[in-house]
């Protein structure tokens, strides 16, 4: 789906499809060098990071494995609940594995902070992060993003996997919604 297909809901496009792919390709090229010979396991947190993982993994020039985890830290709206629970766990034993978490966006940092600690607790050999987007002004917890993507302002964004109330995930770029789309909710 393109911006034009949901034009009435969109305030403006923030990151174009081309820019998204350029950011991911650059990080994947670096990661391919760093992880050569290490048989990395790429982990995406469902559902927001699926598009990012799909492109990232295809842009890697070395073999890697993929796995997924579903965590809840956000409800249906735009605010963090502050607590992280596992809705669906990995199918891989991470003991001794070199893990690269491929994330859509780092907001407060709480989800990633929790996940990095959890994977290390399970015995991962290393845990690093690629984040397509970061909102530095919203950070509450220090998280070391080894492969940073793009810093964006404190605006709620949708598209390229990111949803508002399960909608707009299949938009091929990243955009800011018109305020009236989520009116009634305190952002
Ligand atoms: P954090 O734990 O860093 O606060 O954010 C956790 C998750 O909240 C992100 O991985 C993402 O799924 C969701 N999130 C944070 N900011 C946004 C945003 O601007 N738009 C959408 N759609 N989801 C967001
Ligand atoms: Mg996410
Ligand atoms: Mg969401």
Protein traits:
single chain, 187 residues, alpha/beta, Rossmann fold, 6-stranded mixed beta sheet, 3-stranded antiparallel beta sheet, 3 helices, 9 strands, globular, binds guanosine-5'-monophosphate, binds magnesium ion, magnesium, nucleotide-binding, magnesium ion binding, EC 2.4.2.8
What best-fitting shape do the alpha-carbon axes yield? Answer: globular
Percent of residues in β-strands: 25-35%
Q: State the CATH topology.
A: Rossmann fold
Largest sheet at a glance? 6 strands, mixed
- Domain count: the total is 1
Helix content: 10-25%
Q: Structural class from helices and strands?
A: alpha/beta
CATH first level: which class?
Alpha Beta
Low-pLDDT segments: none
Beta strands, count: 9
The hetero molecules present are:
guanosine-5'-monophosphate, magnesium ion
Short structural summary:
With 187 residues, this protein is α/β, with parallel strands linked by helices. The chain is built from three helices and nine strands.
List the topology elements.
Elements: E1 10-15, H1 17-34, E2 41-46, H2 50-59, E3 65-74, E4 80-88, E5 98-106, H3 110-121, E6 126-134, E7 147-151, E8 157-158, E9 174-177
Parallel strand pairs: 2-3, 2-5, 5-6, 6-7
Antiparallel strand pairs: 1-9, 3-4, 8-9
The structure holds guanosine-5'-monophosphate and magnesium ion (MG) (2 copies).
Guanosine-5'-monophosphate binds at residues 48, 73-74, 80, 103-111, 156-158, 162-164.
